[in-house]
Design a protein that fits this description.
This protein is mainly beta and 146 residues long. It is built from one helix and seven strands, in the order H-E-E-E-E-E-E-E. Helix content is 8%, strand content 32%. The chain has a four-stranded antiparallel β-sheet with strand order 1-2-7-6, with no helix packed on it. Strands 3-4-5 form a three-stranded antiparallel β-sheet, with no helix packed on it. A hairpin with a 2-residue loop joins strand 3 and strand 4. The longest helix is centred in the N-terminal third of the chain and has 11 residues. The N and C termini lie far apart (51 Å). InterPro entries: A-crystallin/Hsp20_dom, HSP20-like_chaperone, Small_HSP. Belongs to the small heat shock protein (HSP20) family.
Length: 146
């Protein structure tokens, strides 16, 4: 109901780490962002770890039943006389797509960013929520006679 992943993303990440391809901290493909997802009552909640990302650099887009989350962590600004000593924090574009089920209301998605965590809330559509159906007995039915 929830998630579409790129099966080659982790392979690319491992290859880049082992072979050191590209410049430090850059990615040839968007990097994955860690996520937790759960259902709480009448809404679906997804939390993405995006430490060090400016909230202005976060984009959410829904097209059909696919939610795309993109974020960009930019390198720290350094002066002309600064020399980079250690670069372990990846920067660049991070992206994740979630395939949303038909039972979710994509018109009422909300998102909040706090302490490096993006929390996306997607309400369950009213038509997809469980409802009780009354069962009538034979005594309750009226038959039409001509």
């Amino acid at each position: 109901m929830l998630m579409r992943t790129d099966p080659f993303r982790e392979f690319d990440r491992l290859t880049q780490q082992l072979l050191g391809s590209g410049s430090p901290g850059t990615w040839s493909r968007p990097a994955a962002m860690p996520m937790d997802a759960y259902r709480a009552g009448d809404e679906f909640v997804a939390c993405f770890d995006l430490p060090g990302v400016d909230p202005e650099a976060v984009e959410l887009e829904v097209e059909r039943n696919v939610l795309t989350v993109k974020a960009e962590r930019r390198p720290l600004p350094t002066g002309d006389d600064a020399r980079l000593q250690v670069s372990e924090r990846p920067y660049g574009v991070f992206s994740r797509q979630l395939l949303l089920g038909d039972g979710l209301d994509t018109t009422r998605i909300s998102a909040a960013y706090e302490a490096g965590v993006l929390t996306v809330r997607i309400p369950v559509a009213e038509t997809a929520q469980p409802r009780r159906i009354t069962v009538s007995s034979g005594a309750d039915r009226k038959e039409l006679t001509s």
